[in-house]
# Entry
Amino acid sequence: MRTVLIALAAPDSVSPGRLIPAALIGIALIVLLITYYKLHPFLSLTLGSLVVGIIAGLSLADTIDAFTSGFGSTAAGVGTLIALGAMFGKLLADSGGADEIVDTIVGRSSPRSLPWAMAAVGALIGLPMFFEIGLVLLMPVIFLVARRSGLSLIRVGIPALAGLSVMHGLVPPHPGPLVAIDALKADLGLTLALGVLVALPTVAIAGPLFAKYAARWVDVPAPELYDAPPAAQDARRPSFGVTLATVLLPVVLMMGKALADILAPEGHAARTVLDFLGTPLVALLIAVIVAMFTLGRGAAMGRKAIAKSLEQALPPIAGILLIVAAGGGFKQTLIDTGIGGLIAGWVENSGLSVLLLAWLVAVLIRLATGSATVATVTASGILAPLVANLSTGETSLLVLAIGAGSLFFSHVNDAGFWLVKEYFGLTVGQNIKTWSAMETIISVTGLVLVLVLDVFF
# Structure
């Protein structure tokens, strides 16, 4: 364990006593610039990153390197996925496919059951996907369901986001839980079963039930971003079955990759192929190409119409891409100062229950770095030596405790925070009341359910 903590400690040039003030001042500055001075979040995040690095004691060159590294990796990873997802979403809308899904969901669900249906859809889409990919795929459906049903965007959107987020943190074969399962040598089947057992009530509480109150606090109209032109409302549409199969295609490809990584030996031909096809970038690229035929051609769109739809998908998300990438830069600056390792070191010898300790370590690293994945990986590495004294069931619960902690209170250093804010058209305060509160409810509910299950183990 000492080796792990040394590896996570602050760089030699950084004073540990300056890390917490640096992070707090940087976060406060970002919030102040955005909320009071109305500065664009991209500029605010950039300035906040520089302030954190300087106060923490990083050199100017190292601070800039950290920010640009985080900015570039986020833009290359999440940014490309957002762009492909936006293209897919625009095709889904322009072809009438989103309308077909919306009409089917609204037609078969009462206003009372619609939020529950959206939670189920979010959970299904979010199972094998990173949160950002699932979000951009669901955006057309969330917006159109809200507009057609007459329900608040928050009432419809929060349940879908809850489904996505819970899968992201708690249920394998999502990459986050798989990392923890591997690090802690947990039993995959048992962790999956317990993960589903914890996930279902967590989605219900943080999704449809919480959304009922969140919609009273924040009332915003659904954007018209994915609305089809009026002339296209009665045009030919792809069928519901074809549309659903196209939407689920990237889900199936990524699920195939996850299962191949579990079941097939390394170097096996099937695993090699599925690993390639299930890479998020490749899976979404394939989905866009397939959608050009199943959705575009299925709606009798010509080549020029399809090309125009794809082209028009990118300008509206330019600001979102810059903000999300800058959020990645801010996160990397915090990581490079070593604050995550410092917090983990403080908690490691606290004497708390191992499950509560795991949750708390993940929470603190999540708050410090803004990354659920970083929180999961770091907490798993720190707590791995404690597994020797745990039963198989407790080890699986440890994975879930870490996953729950990694979702706690998303705020300004989390790229997902800005993604939700910009897509939903919320202010920072409104996003904290809805998205950040939802994430916190997921985290706390997940911990409570894990502790309840621990009684039986």
User: Anything to note?
Assistant: The two ends are 25 Å apart (CA to CA). Residues 1-9 have pLDDT under 50 and may be disordered.
